[in-house]
Specification:
192 residues, alpha+beta, Pnp Oxidase, Chain A, 7-stranded antiparallel β-sheet, 3-stranded antiparallel β-sheet, 4 helices, 36% strand, binds flavin mononucleotide
């Protein structure tokens, strides 16, 4: 029988080194050929809706931020996901409070979108809201609302990924706010 590697401890070490080299040469991700700005441009080609994710902060005060990283995950159980920057001041409230709301904005809610996209202690001061599932604030005239309990949290690079289990829903048939290539766009009526 042909010995591929020498015997004994030295042979085993040699074998492990060769296996590691082989695995590194086949599994290593290709060198990226883009910078953060080109990645942002490429991602902005994907049109999204716009959402305010909201929860309870200190002393039960409402906390929320504009997001477009929202997406559906599963129907059974009913799961959704979104992500929040590790640098966002509102992150600690989402880490602490076990429920949150997803408020999908309508086409006439651009101002609300921008209001929740700027750091402030009183984003809700002139917003009509009510406490929803688990006390998380729900924006009353949102296009649709998903009231969730935090199901899982995952590390996602410079963001934290939230998976929510949907506990209550509400929706209407107004037009959604749509974000594409860094600006709001009008959603063409679909031919019925
Ligand atoms: C259209 C749009 C989408 C956004 N999507 C996200 C997102 O998915 N995740 C995120 O962390 N920030 C997102 N932001 C930025 C936050 O809204 C912004 O950083 C906000 O200030 C965070 O709230 P805070 O400072 O109260 O924590 C988005 C902003 C806009 C205008």
């Amino acid at each position: 029988m042909t010995m591929l590697f020498g015997g004994g401890a030295a042979g085993k070490r040699d074998q492990e080194r060769k296996l590691t080299r082989l695995m590194n040469s086949t599994n290593r991700p290709p060198q990226s050929n883009f910078d953060a700005s080109s990645l942002r441009d490429a991602l902005s080609c994907f049109p999204t809706g716009v959402v305010v994710a909201a929860t309870c902060g200190n002393q039960g005060l409402p906390v929320g931020l504009t997001i477009n990283s929202f997406n559906s995950v599963s129907l059974e159980p009913p799961l959704i996901l979104w992500s929040i920057a590790l640098t966002a001041p509102s992150l600690s409230a989402f880490r602490t409070h076990p429920s949150f709301s997803i408020n999908i904005l309508s086409s006439d809610q651009q101002d609300l979108c921008m209001q929740f996209a700027r750091s402030s202690d009183n984003k809700f001061s002139d917003v009509d809201w009510r406490p929803g599932y688990g006390g998380a604030p729900v924006i009353k005239d949102a296009l649709a609302v998903l009231e969730c309990r935090t199901y899982r949290r995952y590390e996602g690079g410079d963001h934290e990924i939230y998976v929510g289990e949907v506990m209550q829903i509400d929706s209407s048939d107004r037009k959604p706010l749509v974000f594409h290539r860094g600006r709001f766009v009008d959603l063409a009526e679909s031919a019925a």
